[in-house]
Design goal:
The structure holds two protein chains of two kinds. By secondary structure, chain A is α+β, with helices and mostly antiparallel strands. Helix content of chain A is 17%, strand content 48%. Chain B has two domains: 239 residues, no CATH class; 161 residues, no CATH class. In chain B, β1 and β2 form a beta hairpin. The chains are: A alpha+beta, B mainly alpha.
Chain lengths: 123, 477
C-alpha cells in the first residue's frame, strides 16, 4: 500500500515537472489570428476548380466565403449545421461566426464533395 | 444527406484537430519518464515471482472460452441482440439511403461496435449475453437437435485465423466500403449466414471461441475489465466480482500466433485509420510515388492519369491495411528476439512473443479510445431520435424523433488532453504488465529487468507513433 502511494506520488511529480517544462505560457492576447478569414471558390461540373482545400482560422473569427457554382447546389457546414442554397451561374457570399473550435467539413450536397475543410483552432 | 466518399473516415463526423506539438512532446516525454519509474518500481518490488512458480490459472479457461450457457443477461439479452440485428438489417435494406438518417449505421458502428468495446473493457464480458449470432445459433439449436454440436471437428491449425479474416473485412468495410446502410445490411446478412454455416459445420463452442469476430474481440477486451462474472451462491446465479486486470493479463496464456496477429491488428488498424487521413500519408502516394515511380505507367499528365491513379490509390491503401499486422508482427518479433538474445532461455522467440502479447492489449485499447471516443459524444446519442424513426420515413414512434438534433461538437483542447492522457496511461499499463510477465518468465530479477529493455523501446515506439499520428495535419480530400 505504502509502495503504491509512493509510486503514484513519483508519477505525479514526474508529470508535474514535465508540465512545468513543456506547457507553453498562456498568451496575453486571446486571439492572435485574423478577425476575418476570406476565401473564394469556383465549382464546375461538381468539382472544385479554385479555392483552398483547407481553411484555417481561430475561434471567434468571422468566415467569409464566395462561391461560384455552375449548377444549383447546397452548401452544408458540418458541426455548425448551417446550409446555404447556391444558384447555378451566380456567385454567393456566405458569412459565419466561428464560435466553435474543431475540424469541420464544408460539403456540397448535390455534387457530393467536400468543398473545403475548416479548421478552427481554440483560443 | 449524402455520404462523403472521399472524406468519410468511416461513419460519423470526427471534429478533432491535430494535437499541438508541445502536447505531443509532453506525451512522449511522459511515456519515457514514467516507463523508468515503472521499471524501478518493479525491480524493487517484493511481489515478483520466480519462473519456477506456476502462475495461478484461475482466469485462464473462463477467459478464453465463451460459456454457452446463457450469461448474465439471460434469454432477454439474446432476444434484444437478435432484435437489434434484425432491425439493423431491415432498416438498411428498406430504409432511406442517407447514413445519418438510417438507424442501422449508428446502431452498428457506434452503439454496438464502439459502445460494446468500451463496455466490455469496463464491466467484463457482457457481450456473451447480447451476441445476436450466439443467440441465433442457440435458438436454432433448441429446435434442431445436434445443430450446436457441429458435423466436423474444428481444424486446430486454423486457430483464430477466421476471426482475423472477419476483422480485416470489417475494417475494410469501415474505411473503404460503400458507407451506405444498404451495404451494411448486406454485409451483416452475409456474416450472419456464414456464422450459422460455421456453427453447423464446426459446432458452436469452437466457432464462437475461434472464428466469430466479436466474441474473440470483446473477450480479449474484457480481460482488462476490473469485473469478472462467475456462478456463485446457493442459487448458482451469475454474479460479478472485483478483480485486478493486471493480475489477469499477467496470468493469461495466448498460445496461437493467429491470436497474436489479431491483437496486433487491433493496434495496426487503428493506427492505419489515423495515418491514412494525414497529409503525410497522402503526399507519400500523390507527391512521391506518382511522379517518381508511377508516371512511367500512367503518364505525366496528372489530369489524364487521375482516374487510374485513384483506383490504384484504393488498392495501395487496402494493401497497407492488410499488411499492417504482419509489419507489426515483424517489428514485434525482432524486439522479442532481442530480448531472448539478451537473457537466453529455453523458450522459442514465437513462444515468448505469444507470452508477452497480453501487454499489448492496454496499448490497443488506448489507441482505440483516443481515436474514436468522441464519436460516443457526437453520434451515439443520435440513436435516441433514430429509435423513433429507424427507417427514416418520418415516423415518431416513441416521441423522441426530434431530440438532440443539434450537433454536440467536443471542445478540441479537452479532446487533445484525453487523447494524450489515454495513450500515455495505456503505455504505462503495457510496460507494467510486460514487467510482471517477465518476472514470471525469467529465472532472476536481473534477467527480468534486462529483458524489458527491448520491450521498453518497442512500447515507446508504439506510443510515440500513436501520438505522432494524432499530431499530424489532416489531409484534404
Amino acid at each position: 500500500m505504502r509502495r503504491s502511494v509512493i509510486f503514484l506520488a513519483v508519477n505525479v511529480v514526474v508529470l508535474g515537472a514535465l508540465a512545468w517544462w513543456l506547457v507553453p505560457e498562456p498568451t496575453d492576447r486571446p486571439d492572435t489570428g485574423a478577425d476575418r478569414v476570406r476565401a473564394a471558390f469556383e465549382v464546375q461540373d461538381g468539382r472544385r476548380v479554385t479555392g483552398p482545400p483547407v481553411l484555417s482560422a481561430r475561434k471567434g473569427a468571422v468566415l467569409e466565403i464566395q462561391i461560384a457554382s455552375d449548377r444549383d447546389d447546397e452548401l452544408h457546414m458540418h458541426g455548425y449545421d448551417r446550409t446555404w442554397p447556391l444558384r447555378g451561374g451566380e456567385t454567393r457570399t456566405v458569412t459565419l461566426v466561428l464560435d466553435q473550435a474543431g475540424r469541420f467539413s464544408a460539403e456540397l450536397h448535390h455534387a457530393g464533395i467536400e468543398l473545403t475543410a475548416l479548421e478552427v483552432r481554440p483560443q | 444527406m449524402l455520404p462523403l466518399p472521399a472524406v468519410a473516415h468511416s461513419f460519423g463526423q470526427v471534429y478533432r484537430l491535430p494535437v499541438p506539438v508541445w502536447l505531443y512532446l509532453y506525451g512522449a516525454c511522459a511515456a519515457l519518464a514514467l516507463s523508468f519509474v515503472v521499471m524501478v518500481f518493479c525491480l524493487t518490488a517484493d511481489s515478483g515471482r520466480a519462473a519456477a512458480t506456476p502462475a495461478p490459472s484461475g482466469h485462464r479457461l473462463r477467459s478464453v472460452q465463451p460459456p454457452l450457457a446463457r450469461g448474465a443477461i439471460g434469454w432477454g439479452g439474446a432476444v434484444l441482440g437478435i432484435g437489434m440485428l434484425g432491425l439493423c438489417i431491415a432498416s438498411g435494406l428498406f430504409g432511406v439511403a442517407g447514413p445519418y438518417a438510417n438507424f442501422s449505421m449508428t446502431a452498428f458502428w457506434i452503439v454496438f461496435l464502439l459502445g460494446m468495446t468500451y463496455s466490455v473493457a469496463l464491466v467484463g464480458d457482457i457481450q456473451v449475453g447480447l451476441n445476436p449470432w450466439l443467440g441465433l445459433a442457440e435458438t436454432i439449436g433448441r429446435f434442431w437437435q445436434g445443430f450446436l454440436v457441429g458435423r466436423y471437428r474444428y481444424p486446430a491449425r486454423l486457430g483464430y485465423t477466421p476471426a482475423l479474416g472477419f476483422y480485416m473485412a470489417l475494417v475494410w468495410l469501415e474505411l473503404f466500403g460503400p458507407g451506405t446502410p444498404f451495404a451494411l445490411a448486406i454485409a451483416l446478412s452475409i456474416y450472419t449466414g456464414l456464422n450459422l454455416v460455421g456453427v453447423w459445420l464446426t459446432g458452436a463452442r469452437d466457432w464462437f471461441r475461434y472464428a466469430e469476430l466479436f466474441s474473440v474481440m470483446f473477450r480479449l477486451l474484457a480481460l482488462m475489465a476490473p469485473l469478472a462474472w462467475s456462478h456463485s451462491g446457493p442459487a448458482h446465479r451469475l454474479r460479478p466480482r472485483l478483480r485486478s486486470p493486471f493480475a489477469v493479463l499477467r496470468e493469461i496464456r495466448f498460445q496461437r500466433v493467429s491470436l497474436l496477429l489479431f491483437i496486433l491488428f487491433m493496434l495496426s488498424s487503428t493506427a492505419f485509420d489515423g495515418l491514412h487521413e494525414t497529409q503525410a500519408w497522402r503526399r507519400l502516394f500523390w507527391v512521391e510515388l506518382y511522379p517518381n515511380v508511377l508516371s512511367g505507367w500512367v503518364g505525366t499528365n496528372p489530369v489524364a492519369a487521375f482516374p487510374v491513379l485513384l483506383r490504384w490509390y484504393g488498392y495501395w491503401q487496402i494493401l497497407w491495411l492488410l499488411a499492417s499486422p504482419f509489419i507489426y508482427l515483424a517489428v514485434y518479433v525482432v524486439f522479442v528476439a532481442l530480448m531472448r538474445g539478451l537473457v537466453g532461455g529455453r523458450r522459442s522467440v514465437m513462444a515468448l512473443a505469444c507470452r508477452f502479447a497480453p501487454a499489448l492489449l492496454p496499448i490497443a485499447l488506448a489507441y482505440h479510445l483516443s481515436h474514436y471516443y468522441t464519436l460516443i459524444q457526437t453520434q451515439a446519442i443520435k440513436i435516441v431520435p433514430l429509435a423513433s424513426d429507424p427507417f427514416g420515413f418520418g415516423w415518431n414512434l416513441f416521441g423522441t424523433a426530434d431530440w438532440w438534433q443539434r450537433t454536440n461538437v467536443p471542445e478540441p483542447s479537452t479532446v487533445w488532453h484525453v487523447q494524450v492522457g489515454v495513450i500515455v496511461l495505456g503505455h504505462i499499463a503495457g510496460v507494467y504488465i510486460s514487467h510482471l510477465i517477465a518476472l514470471d518468465v525469467f529465472t532472476t530479477r536481473r534477467h527480468a529487468a534486462i529483458s524489458q529493455l527491448p520491450m521498453l523501446v518497442l512500447m515507446l515506439a508504439f506510443t510515440v507513433a500513436g501520438l505522432w499520428i494524432l499530431a499530424q495535419p489532416i489531409g484534404a480530400s
